[in-house]
Backbone:
């Protein structure tokens, strides 16, 4: 009886695959497409998570945000319509003053947004978000211009309603493409403002609008431009992150005394916001990856079909081996190995293409290949080979040697 080793079976499988190189490539194509898609999508998901986490880290862990309306649902995710509520509702000056009086040992920073066109001698940028706040808003949000790019506005400029403005990086480039924007004049709602600074390149804010296309002005100037004294959000900066939870509870109690409705406002810190955003990214990544994984199933069916064809083509070979004493189990293992090798070839090429694709999109979009995604890709590829290789392998192992030798 012939009982070949696993190494012998592996070598035999490789020889069989190499005899039909073009068939091997075409058979692995479905797996290649599936694995490439999975690697790219997981890389984008991982990159987005890291990018957003880095943004939160740059803001520091000492900030608490107070927003009008209900931002989070009872499960910790974003409440339905929360973003619209935040954009259309606001706090009053009395709310802000009340909170500022009650909260001790923390910095209370208001923020009020104006949407308007900004014009320069080079053209107009339409519907720009202009955030009005105090002198500490830039420090809290890490958008203070660095040396050589101007400065942030002062408390005195805010109190005196000095018409000054700080531009986001891209907005500065768009309004003044041929020279530095610092020291130049822009017009907002008929009012002339002096550009005193341009922020460094920041990108989008937590996956939202680009900070580089926004502008920042003293909040008193924002009130004059909008004709309103409403406040869209309040930032509470504590001295130490260990005070976060106690301060959140204190703010919640204060606001409940004022509103008597827990859904009229939201109090949260960056970790809650980060957790909710990452949950959304994870769900999207899993959903899109699941769709991409359909290619793996299609690839697996392709492998099964080709292996069935291979069994038919090699019927006499199988019959001859059985006639001289080959174990059915050895034949089953060999065909199973062939199926796994085919799927792993597709997996390997898919990982390589996915990695190269990630490098290609990285300059334009946050993406990061992780070891876990590579291991998962190879693991799934092997599993596809095993699952879809079983039927052809069983068929080969069960062939009657007499009938197989008669096969023409």
Residues:
């Amino acid at each position: 009886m012939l009982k070949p080793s696993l190494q012998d079976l592996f070598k035999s499988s490789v020889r069989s695959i190499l005899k039909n190189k073009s068939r091997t490539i075409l058979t692995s194509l479905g797996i290649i497409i599936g694995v490439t898609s999975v690697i790219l999508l997981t890389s984008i998901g991982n990159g987005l998570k890291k990018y957003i986490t880095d943004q939160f880290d740059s803001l520091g862990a000492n900030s608490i945000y107070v927003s009008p309306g209900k931002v989070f649902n009872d499960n910790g995710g974003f409440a339905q319509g929360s973003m619209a509520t935040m954009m259309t509702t606001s706090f009053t000056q009395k709310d802000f003053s009340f909170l500022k009086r009650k909260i001790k040992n923390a910095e209370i920073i208001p923020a009020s947004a104006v949407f308007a066109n900004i014009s320069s001698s080079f053209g107009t940028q339409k519907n720009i978000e202009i955030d009005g706040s105090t002198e500490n808003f830039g420090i809290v949000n890490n958008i203070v211009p660095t040396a050589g790019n101007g400065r942030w506005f002062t408390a005195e400029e805010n109190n005196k309603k000095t018409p000054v403005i700080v531009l986001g990086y891209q907005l500065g480039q768009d309004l003044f493409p041929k020279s530095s924007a610092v020291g130049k004049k822009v017009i907002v709602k008929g009012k002339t403002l002096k550009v005193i600074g341009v922020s460094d390149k920041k990108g989008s804010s937590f996956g939202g609008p680009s900070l580089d296309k926004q502008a920042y002005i003293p909040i008193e100037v924002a009130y004059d431009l909008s004709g309103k004294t409403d406040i869209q959000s309040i930032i509470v900066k504590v001295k130490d992150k260990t005070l976060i939870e106690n301060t959140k509870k204190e703010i919640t109690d204060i606001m409940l005394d004022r509103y008597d409705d827990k859904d009229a406002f939201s109090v949260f810190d960056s970790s809650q916001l980060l957790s909710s955003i990452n949950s959304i990214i994870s769900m999207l990544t899993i959903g899109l990856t699941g769709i991409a994984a359909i290619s793996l199933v299609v690839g697996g069916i392709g492998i099964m079909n080709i292996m069935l064809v291979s069994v038919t083509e090699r019927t006499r070979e199988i019959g001859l081996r059985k006639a001289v004493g080959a174990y059915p189990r050895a034949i089953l293992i060999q065909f199973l190995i062939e199926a796994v090798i085919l799927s792993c070839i597709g997996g390997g090429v898919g990982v390589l293409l996915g990695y190269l694709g990630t490098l290609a999109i990285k300059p334009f979009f946050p993406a990061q290949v992780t070891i876990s995604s590579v291991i998962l890709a190879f693991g799934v590829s092997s599993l596809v080979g095993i699952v879809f290789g079983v039927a052809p392998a069983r068929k080969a192992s069960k062939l009657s040697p007499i009938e197989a030798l008669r096969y023409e």
